[in-house]
Amino acid sequence: MAVQASEPIIRVDNVTKTFLGETGKTATVLDRITFNVGNEFLCIVGPSGCGKSTLLRIIDGLDTATSGRVLFHDQAITRPSPKIGVIFQTFALIPWKTVLGNVEMALGPTAVPHEEQTSLARKYIQDVGLEGFETSYPKELSGGMKQRVGIARALALQPEVLLMDEPFSSLDALTAENLRREVLDIWRDPAYPTNAVIMVTHNVQEAVYMADRVLVLGGRPAKILDDVPISLPRPRNQRDPGLYDFADRIVSKIS
Amino acid sequence: MATKLAAPEFPGNPKQPPRNFARNVVSGTLVFGVLGFVGAELAMGGMLAPILANPLTIKLPYYVARTLARMSIAYVLALAFALAYGITAALNHRASHVMLPLLDILQSVPVLAFLPIVFLFFLSRFPGSFGEEISSIILIFTAMVWAPTFGVIAGVNAIPQDIKEASQAYGMGGIQYLRQVVLPAVYPELVWTSILAWGGGWYLIPIEEYFTFGRCLAPPCPPHTLPGIGFYIADAANRSDLASSVFGVMVLVGIIVLIDRLVWRPLERRTDKYKYESVTSPTANAHHESRVVGSFRRAEGRLLTPIVSFLKYERAYLGSFLETAHLRPRLHISDRMRLHDRWAKHTLAGRVASIIIFAFLFFLAINLLSNGALSSVESGITIIQTEVGIPALFYDTGRSLLRILTSYTIALTWTLAAGMLIARSERVSKLLVPIFDIGQSIPATALFPIIILLLVRPNLGNPFALEIASVLLMLTGMQWYILFNIVGAIHNLPADIAEATAAYRIRGLRFAKEILVPASFPAIIIGSIQAWGGGWNATIVSEYISVSGQNGSPTVYQVPGLGSLLNRALSLDPTIGTVIIAATILTMTATIVIINRVVWRRLLKKADKYKFEA
Question: What order of strands is seen across the sheet that includes strand A41-45?
Fold first, then answer.
């Protein structure tokens, strides 16, 4: 739970993203975004559609920046890496694969020997509390359980960096609250190698509760409006009144 | 909490530039420019001369007008029927019990099987060109009508409950409800299904305009009584004038593309307005263009901004012009292919009643045709036993089945390969899909005369060549169904799944095996069912080919099968012929039903596993 102590793992350097418009005009979505991510839980907040998800996709190498670059340990990211795990808003589970199959899928293209993949997948399924559901299909699971599969799939890679794109916004409030706490527990558990987390959300309360640092994105094209360290001790309470001061500061920046 | 702002309004993606009529005309001119260019190429190869020498070329505008008139009249009738039947069936709960199952029966009988019956009937009542015109319009109607009818029903059923309740609460009723709620709800479905309906109509046009179907039994044959573009193509092919017939096909394709541009595209664009839910995912579109954008920017810079942006626009527009693949209607129609699922939902009484009504109509038609000579079912069976023989009937069925299976195997193999290529690379997809789309827009039947000219004529008396030609003709009627279902499935792969597989580096063979094939499995099955329907339809025109020789007397080439049996029956005495026609249609229908039950139904059940959640 080191706060900005270490050297940066990911450097986002002057990233600009432009889309081609209908009449041949271009629309700039991200404008010269620069920040570093160390061993910390970083949240990026901003209004819907401001380009947060595009930024996350560029960090994962799913999309390319129009200019600027993203460095992962001084290496430019151009394509997805097995050292970065991703959790999706809509879970993105393969409907014809079982829970186990979905988690194993992520291990398929890695160097993990084939025999060990299943046992590794089983371990992470257990860790997210889905023991006994290994042979279930996604459609038999509730939203919260589906996202647990998504989390297990990302953790199974034993990634250095975890990217989360609005991971709780498809869940009901109660489920989301529980899952938020569990994700933080996992992140703080030294048994997991993942230290850097980047989470995109438009829920300011959620960002303040979870993050060490909140980047506020906004404007058209989007710029970094503010960089707010959340200096509250952990473990935190989701109803801690102290959270509201930070939240107010962030909301005032956006609106 | 965070303020939610509206998503940034990208001026959109190049797939959908703003359109207006003037632009459509410009693009229309562009098409003709391309056609003109191809024409010039032909001329350089010395092929313009035969086209100009063809006395019918000058009549081509007249032919086109006649064909279009035929199509339009049939379409207006089909539209009226679809609206009346569809809205009644969807809104009147009691009537729907019989109307829905009856519709299911009617649309599953191969259209082309009706062809000889309708021609026989109307020609015997109204000999000459009037009878031919009526029967051809009725046939186009039967080919066009089912898709829009199902579309109307689907549209009415898609009206959300809250809208229904709201309109009730505001006291909206009768005509007002129809105009304000029902018709707008039906509009998108009607447009999509109309595109399919016209496709079905175009398939019939060449057949009607040149296939004889017993209309010319004794040579010398009277001059053609059904002038049109299909006749032009076939006439040229008959005279071994390859240049003219290819030119005719080009004109036909030009017309189809133009109608698509001027009518369907503008109408389709308005469908979004009337939809209750959006189908496309905005994220998928936005990210789609990004890579293209990058290269555009780097390559062109800002120096020539005005010119470059104009060119970009035109390029984007040209791209969209080529992308005519109407995936939505194609996918949409897939739903109604799940006939069995729906059939089981109809009430038993409704099912029985509709079967009785259908049987009544069928036997009424047979009776009218045979002039009441058919006294009983036993006498009919006796006729079949003496004239054809039950074993021969089975043999013919088997031969047709084998032919369809061969075509199907070929079609499935190449379309799967093409699907892999399209999924693998955006660039290949952009190149191939427009080519396929142009390919499928050519009514397969318009190519028949050319295939016959090139393949059958030089190999007269070689049964093997005939068999190959027959399979090839069938293939043209089957392959596009499978291909476009696969393409549609690839396009419909949910954006998040595509992202996840990319993020977790599922690529290449692993991607094909674990994602692509399972994801398109339901589409492959649906496409296969459609293709088999197309295949059975094609048996009637591909197994029995009558080509008029130089002296005007028709030469018949045939391979054994149900299709050729049906055609042979036409030249027999009406009493006997009608019985054989009826037996053939019943055998064909029974075979289709059995195959559906034994093969497709099981596979469809399996396919459910591979569906994405809505």
Answer: A84-87, A161-165, A196-201, A41-45, A213-218, A223-229
Q: How far apart are the first and last CA of chain B?
A: 29
Tell me if B329 sits within 8 A of B198, measured CB to CB. no
Q: Is the Cβ of A21 closer than 8 Å to some Cβ of chain B?
A: yes
Residue B35: closest CA among B22, B51, B20 = B51
Tell me what the mean pLDDT of segment B40-65 comes to: 75
Question: Beta-carbon neighbour count of residue A113 at 10 Å?
Answer: 9
pLDDT digits (tens, 9 = 90+) for B303-336: 334 444 444 444 444 444 334 444 555 555 445 4
Pairing of strands A26-37, A10-20: antiparallel
Name the more confident of B387 and B215. Answer: B387
One-character DSSP codes across A102-161: HHHHHHTTSSS-HHHHHHHHHHHHHHTT-TT-TT--GGGS-HHHHHHHHHHHHHHT--SE
B94, with CB counted inside 10 A (0-12, 13-18, 19+), is exposed
**Given an 8 Å threshold on Cβ–Cβ distance, is A49 in contact with B8?**
yes
Q: Do B506 and A108 touch (CB under 8 A)?
A: yes
Q: Please give the backbone phi and psi of residue B55, each rounded to the nearest 5 degrees, phi first.
A: -60, -20
Element (H, E) at A19: strand A10-20
b/e string for B134-150 if b means 16 or more Cβ within 10 A? Answer: bbbbbbbbbbbbbbbbb
Question: Which residue matches tokens 């995936």?
Answer: B327
Average pLDDT, chain B: 73
What are B343's two structure tokens? 């059939």
% of residues, chain B, pLDDT over 90: 7
Residue B74 · residue B141 · CB < 8 Å: yes
Which residues in B lie closer than 8 A to residue A137 (C-beta atoms)? 609
Of A199, A227, A243, A245, nearest to A41 by C-alpha is: A199
pLDDT tens column, B523-551: 888 888 878 888 888 887 788 776 655 45
Residue A116 burial class via C-beta count within 10 angstroms: exposed 0-12, middle 13-18, buried 19 and up: exposed
List the single residue in B1, B293, B518 with the smallest CB-CB distance to A20. B293
Candidate from A19-28, A229-238, B171-180 with smallest mean pLDDT: A19-28
Does this model's pTM top 0.90? My answer is no
Please give the Cα distance from B529 to B537 (Å, whole number). Answer: 12
Q: CA B401, CA B393: separation in Å to the nearest integer?
A: 12
Of B10, B283, B506, which is closest to A109 when you measure between CB atoms? B506
Q: Within 13 Å, how many C-alpha atoms sit on residue B393's CB side? A: 22
Distance of CA B84 to the CA centre of its chain: 23
Q: Tell me the C-alpha distance between B17 and B323, whole Å.
A: 13
* CB contact at 8 A, A30 and A16: yes
Q: Alpha-carbon distance A216 to A44, whole Å?
A: 6
Query: Would you say B284 and B278 are in contact if contact means Cβ atoms under 8 Å apart?
Result: no
Predicted-complex ipTM score? 0.83
Per-residue pLDDT tens over the stretch B193-213: 888 888 888 888 887 777 655
CA pair distance A105, A112, nearest whole angstrom = 12
